[in-house]
């Protein structure tokens, strides 16, 4: 069978990325230009700044991805792009570039859901992984437990009812004056802290419900910081980080184990930016040994936003004939 090369484009938040992936599994090039430095001083992503930066970067990033692959545009088999969920202005930059490129080289345009892309990062990392499996997708904007029945076929088993896990990490880090994005900073500080120092609340819903809620724990951390400060007792940042992280990880893993048992799967995966968290990864491995399932997770660079995962996901859409037309628009609140 002829090899299929897809160029993926990702601009849903603050990463401008383009990547060429062969047959959905092999990364030929993956260029990621992060805007984090631009947003740090605001403590989070500023949508208007993100869109403007994407406009500046999109062509150079695509050029670089094609050059690093040693290919000509005409050799590509399709153009894939994230069309949601995400920031509308940011998404539109990628969607417009993808449409223009697909039109110019006269190749199919494939629209990819960003959350689906995060799941597909596992296909790149683990060449042997095939559905069915259960996947925990945890990022700055989403926390879902998904049953991946087949390529492109999903059943949501649980989702956050308020903040996403990554959002909670970012907000707690901001309250601790640590900077942005908070997840990696909390992960690092927690290594020198005591995870049992403070007993932050864990939220579980009624039996059989695998939803999450992380706004309560975020508020509990903020209250703890205020009370300790008012009492003049202070607190150890590392202990707050470790205790907060442990509480979040415990809920994520417990619901994930329940989901895996519910579906009777032998394979379970992590995906999304928070899947780079070292505590989540080690607890996940432990859970896999205790509960007899095989654990899959992408390398950190494939956990956070990147276009390789978009190109991988697009491959499985393409072979099922799911291509888009040039009327494609960004859908900021797109559901899986
Ligand atoms: O997937 P991603 O790059 O973007 C979204 O789709 O949202 O995820 C970014 C999120 C941020 O909230 C960031 O703080 C979090 O992932 N994150 C982490 C770690 N690395 C990134 N959270 C916890 N521990 C980490 N090591
Ligand atoms: Zn993402």
From TrEMBL:
<feature type="binding site">
    <location>
        <position position="118"/>
    </location>
    <ligand>
        <name>Fe cation</name>
    </ligand>
</feature>
<comment type="function">
    <text>Required for the formation of a threonylcarbamoyl group on adenosine at position 37 (t(6)A37) in tRNAs that read codons beginning with adenine. Is involved in the transfer of the threonylcarbamoyl moiety of threonylcarbamoyl-AMP (TC-AMP) to the N6 group of A37, together with TsaE and TsaB. TsaD likely plays a direct catalytic role in this reaction.</text>
</comment>
<dbReference type="GO" id="GO:0002949">
    <property type="term" value="P:tRNA threonylcarbamoyladenosine modification"/>
</dbReference>
<comment type="similarity">
    <text>Belongs to the KAE1 / TsaD family.</text>
</comment>
<keyword id="KW-0819">tRNA processing</keyword>
<feature type="binding site">
    <location>
        <position position="305"/>
    </location>
    <ligand>
        <name>Fe cation</name>
    </ligand>
</feature>
<keyword id="KW-0963">Cytoplasm</keyword>
<dbReference type="InterPro" id="IPR043129">
    <property type="entry name" value="ATPase_NBD"/>
</dbReference>
<keyword id="KW-0479">Metal-binding</keyword>
<feature type="binding site">
    <location>
        <position position="170"/>
    </location>
    <ligand>
        <name>substrate</name>
    </ligand>
</feature>
<dbReference type="Pfam" id="PF00814">
    <property type="entry name" value="TsaD"/>
</dbReference>
<feature type="binding site">
    <location>
        <position position="277"/>
    </location>
    <ligand>
        <name>substrate</name>
    </ligand>
</feature>
<dbReference type="GO" id="GO:0005506">
    <property type="term" value="F:iron ion binding"/>
</dbReference>
<dbReference type="GO" id="GO:0005737">
    <property type="term" value="C:cytoplasm"/>
</dbReference>
<keyword id="KW-0012">Acyltransferase</keyword>
<feature type="binding site">
    <location>
        <position position="187"/>
    </location>
    <ligand>
        <name>substrate</name>
    </ligand>
</feature>
<feature type="domain" description="Gcp-like">
    <location>
        <begin position="26"/>
        <end position="311"/>
    </location>
</feature>
<feature type="binding site">
    <location>
        <position position="183"/>
    </location>
    <ligand>
        <name>substrate</name>
    </ligand>
</feature>
<feature type="binding site">
    <location>
        <position position="114"/>
    </location>
    <ligand>
        <name>Fe cation</name>
    </ligand>
</feature>
<protein>
    <recommendedName>
        <fullName>tRNA N6-adenosine threonylcarbamoyltransferase</fullName>
        <ecNumber>2.3.1.234</ecNumber>
    </recommendedName>
</protein>
<feature type="binding site">
    <location>
        <begin position="137"/>
        <end position="141"/>
    </location>
    <ligand>
        <name>substrate</name>
    </ligand>
</feature>
<keyword id="KW-0408">Iron</keyword>
<dbReference type="InterPro" id="IPR017861">
    <property type="entry name" value="KAE1/TsaD"/>
</dbReference>
<dbReference type="InterPro" id="IPR022450">
    <property type="entry name" value="TsaD"/>
</dbReference>
<dbReference type="InterPro" id="IPR000905">
    <property type="entry name" value="Gcp-like_dom"/>
</dbReference>
<keyword id="KW-0808">Transferase</keyword>
<dbReference type="GO" id="GO:0061711">
    <property type="term" value="F:tRNA N(6)-L-threonylcarbamoyladenine synthase activity"/>
</dbReference>
